[in-house]
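[agent] plan:
  1. take the single chain provided in the ticket
  2. run structure prediction with default settings
  3. attach structure tokens to the ticket
  4. add a short note for the reviewer (M.T.)
[agent] executing step 1
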Amino acid sequence: MSVRGWILFALLLSPPAFSAPRTEAVKLKEWKLSAAVVLSRRGDANSLATAALLSPTDGPELSAQASELAPESATFAWVRLRLCAIAPPCDFRDAATAMRWVAPANPAAWLPTLNVAFKDGDLVETERVLFDMSQGKHFAAYATDVAVLMFDALKAAANSLPMDTAANDASRLALVISVAAAKLVPSFTTIEEVCRDPAPGTERRDSCMKIARTLQRGDTVRGEFAGISIEKHLVAPDSKEAIALAERRRVLESQESLAANFDTPLLPWSRNAHARWHLARMRSLPREQDVLLAILREQGTPSYPAVPAPAPAPAQ
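[agent] step 2 finished; step 3 output follows
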């Protein structure tokens, strides 16, 4: 056989270059499906909510069951609303009403309604929803709280779950943080677009500024970024307010980047200990930003990064 023939033969026998990542993705998908089945059979609210977040198809139904078991819980109400809102056939209106009932000060409950009004070009409804959102006091996506309850539910059911995924505290925590962030932290694209350039002195501008400030006090980094972005469009570009907002964004980006390596320590055998420490901070600090600051303090890293030196002047 010619050299060319041997090369072609070897290529035919070789696995596809991207087979490994795909296999990992398929394995994770299968594990989530199995875990959702196991957890849904346990029947308590935490297990049902966790099953809902892991299930590829039954999220709205399982989250509704979890919310029924804890009807006064804003956390479960938000899980129900989010999983319905991101599943197009699901009518989220009842879930949104329930969310506003148990958490009237949280404007996040209005986001799905705003998305529909903006998409439909309904200016009257958009203005109404913006005003209602502006009356909120704190913006919460509960991602940290939900990651904690997911961790506890998975650990409680560990003996009944497949052992090829989330088999220790480090991998379990990484999984629940990822899932909670992906499923529960909403997109802020619509609210940023609606509030991009409202006319001065209008009700929309006033509503957008209030919403921006509420987002900045919220419980997620992405929400705070959105609030900074919205307010930056509402102030003069060279004003002291704009400069302060740009600095806040720089500091928050730096804090997020510096804290990101905490759960991947240099010593592999210390990963579970790091994860348990991280989880303890999440239990006591529901704001993602406060967890980041706690991690930086634990690392001995300054929470306020140094201002970068200006670029050198070009040579004459």
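[agent] step 4 note for reviewer: Residues 1-15 have pLDDT under 50 and may be disordered.
[agent] ticket updated
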